[in-house]
Amino acid sequence: MPILAAVAGTRSEDPVVSVGYDLATAYGDDLIVLNVVPEEEFEAHREEIQRIDEFRDYSFTQEEESAATISERVVDTTLAAYEPETVETVGRIGSPDEEILTVASTVDATYIVVGGRKRSPVGKALFGSTTQAVLLNADRPVVTVMQERE
């Protein structure tokens, strides 16, 4: 069963990938690195491309491929010293917490590895947290890698 590491954005290096790789190596499992693009971000990308070229369409599949490419870039940067052979990169579009849980279930992940940031109680109440939603709804162990505020 693989380890699922969920990354966000275009960060060049991500400790979530390092921890996921360490777990995969320790358990002799493959590592899947997932990047989820929220649907509203996809729609914004599509509108921007059509604004530039009204005859060009930007598909759901193209956005998922772009998200997977971002995952690949993060893996290449984070694990450059290791030259990993058993890492798969995946891109999805949708609600990040729902997509993380869906992919974890589909691949029957041993662990889900996600990033987290320290936030005040008010910040947690005002803003949704993908990490919190994954922790509360996962049916398998979740490893949270705490990161500095961005």
Q: What's the short story on this structure?
A:
The chain is of the alpha/beta class and 150 residues long. It has helices at residues 15-27, 39-52, 60-78, 96-107, 121-126, 130-137; strands at 3-7, 31-37, 87-93, 111-117, 142-147. It has one domain (6-147): Rossmann fold (3-Layer(aba) Sandwich).
What this model shows, in words?
This is Universal stress protein. Belongs to the universal stress protein A family. Residues 2-145 form the UspA domain. Pfam families: Usp. The protein has helices at residues 15-27, 39-52, 60-78, 96-107, 121-126, 130-137; strands at 3-7, 31-37, 87-93, 111-117, 142-147. With 150 residues, the chain is an alpha/beta fold. The chain has one domain (6-147): HUPs (Rossmann fold). The protein has a five-stranded parallel β-sheet with strand order 3-2-1-4-5, with helices on both faces. β1, α1 and β2 (31-37) form a beta-alpha-beta unit. α4 packs parallel to α6. The protein is globular and about 50 Å long. The termini are far apart.
